[in-house]
TrEMBL record:
Disordered: annotated span: 81-100
Location of the Helix-turn-helix domain: 24-71
Pfam families xref list: HTH_17
Organism per entry: Saccharopolyspora antimicrobica
Gene Ontology MF terms in the entry: DNA binding
Protein name (database record): DNA binding domain-containing protein, excisionase family
Amino acid sequence: MNTDLASAIADLMHQLQAEQVRGYRVETVAGLLDVPYRTVMALIHSGQLGHVMAGRYYLVPHAELQRYLAGAAAASRRNEAARGPLLITPGPQQKTRADALMPTCAPQEHREGALL
């Protein structure tokens, strides 16, 4: 029985050593996401991004970063679907590109038989 237990523990230790658990410092996560340091800290403190303390450093495990990114991507897709297609319409004072290219003279009336 002890040899089976020792064998199981040895197999488990080998699996744990084979899997490299990666963790990133906050500065690295900010660089990967291209956001400010304070944004990453806000995500950590709000509980949206999991972390582990290593002394005085916050470390974000690779799995937590992947979980956060997958959730953010899903939320983005949901927001896009709820918003519908993006339509850009000019405001009351804005001119469209076509208006800018058109001459600014007053429109002429169309009369039958008259040449414009």
